[in-house]
Amino acid sequence: MAVQPASSDGQHRVVIVGAGFGGLFAARRLSGAPVQVTVVDRTTHHLFQPLLYQVATGILSEGHVAPTTREVLRRQRNARVVLGEVVDVDLDARTVTSRVLDQETLLGYDSLIVATGSSQSYFGHDEFAVHAPGLKSIDDALEVRGRILGAFEMAEIETDPQRREAWLTFALIGAGPTGVEMAGQIAELSRQSLCGEYRNFDPAQARILLVDGAPRILPAFDEALSQRAAEHLRGMGVEIQTGAMVVGVDADGIEIQDGDGQRRRVAAMTKVWSAGVQASGLGRLLAEHSGAELARHGQVQVMPDCTLPGHPEVFVVGDLMALDGLPGLAEVAMQSGLHAASEIRHRLDGDTTPRRFAYRDLGTLAAISRYYAIGERGRVHLWGLPGWLIWLAVHLVFLTGFKSRVGALFYWTASFFGRLRYERTITLQQVLARRALETAPQSAPHMDAPPA
Ligand SMILES: Cc1cc2nc3c(=O)[nH]c(=O)nc-3n(C[C@H](O)[C@H](O)[C@H](O)COP(=O)(O)OP(=O)(O)OC[C@H]3O[C@@H](n4cnc5c(N)ncnc54)[C@H](O)[C@@H]3O)c2cc1C
């Protein structure tokens, strides 16, 4: 095990676990502070998750939405980046253990910020994951891209009309923002971008199903906005099936249970799961070690200042934190990360009075298609082109790094005005890996898997 040395100059050591929105914003707020910041993450990048669906549908490249953390923090002299999956936190010894392959690293801390986010929940049916990937990582987005574009290739060489129909059926399970955005983008891809490229079928025949057990799509939005989004999607050719629970998923399709209890099967080779979330497994670990309570989706119930009960030196922020029913949103993660870092700065200045985390709601947006988004901030509702322009501006401002912004703007111009998709490359390896995965026996559970 590699033991990272304690700060040689006696500086306060801040370890931040997770380089997502919460972790990165906390690290940046500590820029220039008399502390030594270590950001440890199991990936090498900071991921802008809200645009993953554009990577999955060929609009953006992975580089646009996932700049390397090392590059993002290169000018922050008091910060360093360590690759590793954190597998243990010793709250008494104040150490964090991370692992990559067989290399273990032990990091000592004076303050700890845990921002490890959440992963997909299959509601106790983890066996669905192999057939219906979620959209939480770059790996997921590239796999989904391979599945979608690979399905059109398979439809071109398929001679059985029923199987071709199954290759051309795309099931989006879960009608929150991710499912809705994916449905809109697959509709645009099939009706516009792929037009005229195949000889044995018309890609516009593709059937796009958006399925959810809830009575309406986008339940977090106002009902009138959700209805507008549904009408717009229907106009694009998306079939919306609400009040319909997906109760089975296999390599060739899904089984749906309708409100009347009747079950039916839909042949669909491509499935994407965005129906539920589960907080990172580190939440469970912290709860076991500290006695903190866990909320419904495994988030850690924190004190009003975002600290772990009984451990004022440990902050839990972002999707992993349960506080005042705040939703799992990027803005909540950023603001709570900033709050944790500010608290550390205040303490170093000698002010030890804990401050309550006060979330400022800046509103939520969901892009349904090009030129059409919905947005809500308090009583102000936006839809259509005005909503889309705000969506565009917000995403440009928040995308991390100048290079990503310029690149994304260029690619968006090509996609939104020219209907082009520059990122349509898929590899045979992805197709083969998918086959191997779908037929292989279940592998050992991942750390983030919910407890049996
Ligand atoms: C597809 C999608 C679309 C979304 N769209 C929107 C949107 O439009 N608007 C919005 O506000 N929010 C959106 N969200 C939610 C938003 O992205 C999250 O709320 C936000 O990313 C949470 O930030 P976080 O820092 O808590 O976690 P994350 O951003 O998930 O970051 C967690 C980090 O921790 C790392 N990590 C996890 N476990 C470990 C471990 N054991 N050891 C080391 N590192 C670890 C991960 O690699 C990751 O880098 C979306 C999410 C998804 C998945």
End-to-end distance, in Å? 30 Å
Approximately how much beta-strand content do the residues carry? 15-25%
Number of helices: 13
Reading side by side through the largest sheet, how are the strands ordered? 4-3-2-8-20-19
Q: What is the alpha-carbon Rg in Å?
A: 23 Å
What percentage of residues falls in helices of 4 or more residues?
25-40%
Associated small molecules? flavin-adenine dinucleotide
Could you tell me the mean pLDDT?
A: 92
Briefly note the structural class of the backbone: alpha/beta
Low-confidence stretches: none
The major β-sheet equals: 6 strands, mixed
The tally of beta strands, per DSSP, is 24
What gross morphology would you assign? Answer: globular
Structural account:
- The chain is of the alpha/beta class and 452 residues long.
- The protein has helices at 21-29, 52-56, 62-65, 69-72, 138-157, 161-167, 177-193, 223-235, 281-290, 330-348, 384-398, 402-418, 428-439; strands at 2-3, 12-17, 35-41, 79-83, 85-90, 95-100, 103-108, 111-114, 118-120, 169-173, 207-212, 238-242, 245-250, 253-257, 263-267, 270-273, 277-279, 300-301, 307-308, 311-316, 321-322, 364-369, 372-377, 380-383.
- The strands form 7 sheets. The protein has a 6-stranded mixed β-sheet with strand order 4-3-2-8-20-19. The protein has a 4-stranded mixed β-sheet with strand order 1-7-6-5. Strands 12-11-10-16 form a 4-stranded parallel β-sheet.
- Strand 14 (253-257) and strand 15 form a beta hairpin.
- The radius of gyration is 23 Å and the shape is globular.
- Flavin-adenine dinucleotide (FAD) binds at residues 17-23, 40-43, 47, 49-50, 52, 85-86, 115-117, 135-136, 177-178, 280, 282, 318-320, 328-331, 333.
